[in-house]
Write a structure and sequence with these properties.
Blueprint: H1 2-31, H2 39-43, H3 46-56, E1 66-67, E2 74-75, H4 85-92, H5 95-122, H6 129-140, H7 150-153, H8 155-166, H9 172-180, H10 187-208, H11 214-230, H12 232-239, H13 257-270, H14 283-297, H15 304-322, H16 329-334, H17 337-340, H18 350-366, H19 370-389, H20 392-398, H21 404-408, H22 410-420, E3 428-432, H23 436-441, E4 449-450, H24 456-472, H25 474-481, E5 486-487, H26 515-520, E6 523-528, E7 540-546, E8 555-560
Parallel strand pairs: 3-6
Antiparallel strand pairs: 1-2, 4-5, 6-8, 7-8
């Protein structure tokens, strides 16, 4: 009777959880292009990339194909595999619809994966369903990096499948999970590190239990092979590089010891922009309460599951920070892969670890009586409420980020295109004070870009345009020379800010660009978000300013003399 009662209540909670996920997602579907969302590594890059690739007709282009719209020929491989589900969404639907569907798909699968993982392997008491459902809902609402898809939020589902196989209880459902997840996630942005962790778990079993567990090993190898086949473009670029890329000049290990320690603490308590978990206010205090309780009761062995998660969470933050410790640099200079591949991203396991720790810790308290159960429910409600406050529509509206429509300003850039009056493929443009992704989204051919990698020779050529500006600002110079992912027209007076809105009073007084190089590369126009007072002296002629009520920007159009 009690089991039926618990099952009935659990179903009600599940319906409620799905209703809350729908409510969380609803602003995107109701507002459409007037919805607000993340700019960094989203509007300023990935969404424009998907549209550029779709318009290029090179979705299935050969490995040596180029996309002429960007930097006079960006390698097709820079846009990733055609076998990625998010690429297909953006090929089948308009960008805003594709984005909304991707958000919905990712969050629903994240909930299902965490729920199945906790219920099957961590919290088996039927009356603890508020924890399994509450933690799973919270995990599904985390502000994940949108283009990462299921790279982090799909890890609980993968772990559920692997643990089933490891216990020799695997079924076709587990193998189907391992087959489908690579089609909607990224190897380098999550699952490389997850599969490495599974490999370590297999080695631990081999050393401690003296068992090979061939099916578990086969599962790891199978999923790894699938990722390598699906992301064959990445494999080709790493194994058979045609020429040095911008990643060859990466210098990542620059921090002193104490700065590294501070970064580890910051990462532990605040997280990272690409794998935000909003765990600081609720989950961290609960985890310390639980570890204090375990220490006081002396029940380390009984609760070793939580203790391991607690330690692993800290180790991942330390690993992340120390990857940037300057002591690594001599080794990185000798082994190029250590610079071009970001091994710090083992911390991309933290969202799963943190919420597994949340569930495991809440369950420890849950078993201590009615008062503890009420406390756990309060923690769950507060965490879910906090995540709702972090809803992109609320957060980015409050911090005054532009909406999708305001950011890409299609009407305004259509006016600019019509004013120029020539085929967009016949000239090149660059942007000042705004992201080049806006021009790219609107069909302009750009000399500037933001991409993960592109030919190193192009970076050096482009640098000649901005050399004098970089010499004025050491921070921008180091940023471009030791990374260069943002191949932008950097202006010393503007600093590292790329979104000067139409209400900005900022002006450029002494711009020094090499317009001769700009023109030689095909550049004809510069779109600036702020007026350039010495434009004529620098070889630029002001044509016209463009404004729109549907745009976040006022664009000053200049033509190179």
């Amino acid at each position: 009777m009690n089991q039926n009662k618990f099952a009935s209540k659990e179903r009600i909670f599940l319906y409620g959880a799905f209703a809350l996920i729908i409510l969380f997602l609803s602003p995107m579907f109701f507002l459409g292009q007037d919805a607000h969302m993340r700019v960094h590594d989203n509007l300023d890059s990935n969404i424009a990339w998907y549209k550029v690739l779709r318009n290029s007709g090179e979705l299935f282009g050969p490995v040596d194909a180029v996309i002429p719209q960007i930097i006079n020929g960006l390698p097709r491989n820079a846009f990733g595999t055609e076998f990625s589900g998010i690429q297909w969404l953006h090929n089948l639907f308009d960008p805003m619809t594709a984005y909304s569907l991707s958000q919905a798909l990712t969050r629903i699968i994240a909930f299902i994966g965490m729920y199945m993982l906790l219920k099957r392997h961590f919290i088996k008491d039927q009356d603890a369903y508020p924890i399994t459902i509450g933690v799973s809902l919270a995990f599904a609402l985390t502000p994940f990096w949108p283009s990462g898809m299921l790279s982090t939020l799909g890890q609980p589902l993968a772990l559920w499948a692997f643990l089933n196989i490891r216990k020799r209880e695997g079924s076709w459902k587990d193998w189907l999970t391992l087959t489908l997840l690579p089609l909607y996630s990224s190897f380098v942005l999550g699952f490389f590190f997850f599969l490495a962790a599974m490999g370590l778990l297999w080695l631990r079993d081999l050393a401690v239990k003296r068992e090979i567990n061939a099916k578990f090993l086969a599962g790891i190898m199978y999923m790894t092979l699938l990722f390598l086949l699906i992301e064959y473009r990445l494999v080709y670029s790493l194994v058979i590089p045609e020429a040095p890329t911008s990643r060859n000049e990466f210098v990542s290990s620059t921090l002193g010891f104490w700065h590294t320690i501070r970064l580890a603490i910051k990462n532990y308590f605040l997280g990272h922009t690409h794998v935000m978990t909003l765990h600081t206010l609720i989950i961290v205090p609960l985890s310390f309460i639980v570890i204090w309780f375990i220490a006081r009761q002396g029940i380390w062995k009984q609760e070793k599951q939580f203790v391991r998660l607690f330690i692993l969470n800290g180790v991942l933050s330390i690993w992340y920070a120390f990857w940037f410790f300057k002591g690594w640099e001599p080794l990185k200079e000798k082994v190029g892969l250590l610079n071009t591949f970001n091994f710090a991203r083992f911390h991309f396991l933290r969202p799963m670890i943190i919420y597994m720790m949340f569930g495991s810790g809440a369950y420890i308290l849950w078993k201590k009586g009615m008062a503890a159960k009420q406390l756990v429910k309060i923690f769950l409600i507060l965490q879910i409420a906090l995540l709702f406050l972090g809803n992109p529509e609320l957060y980015y509206r409050v911090v005054h980020q532009p909406s999708f429509r305001e950011f890409y300003a299609e009407e305004q850039f259509r006016d600019i295109k019509n004013y120029i009056g020539k085929p967009q493929s016949s000239y090149r443009v660059a942007s000042i004070g705004i992201h080049p992704s806006i021009s790219q989204y609107n069909g302009f051919y750009t000399l500037d870009t933001y991409n993960n990698f592109y030919p190193l020779s192009y970076k050096h050529q482009f640098r000649k345009i901005i050399a004098k500006e970089l010499d004025k600002n050491k921070k921008e110079k180091r940023y471009f020379d030791t990374w260069g992912g943002r191949c932008y027209i950097f202006v010393a007076e503007l600093g590292k800010k790329y979104d000067y809105r139409k209400d900005s009073k900022k002006k450029i007084h002494n711009l020094q660009l090499n317009t001769a190089v700009f023109k030689k590369m095909g550049g004809r126009y510069i779109m600036s978000a702020v007026p350039i007072l010495n434009a004529e002296e620098d070889g630029l002629h002001f044509l016209k300013s463009f404004n729109s009520s549907y745009s976040a920007w006022k664009i000053y159009l200049y033509k190179v003399k």
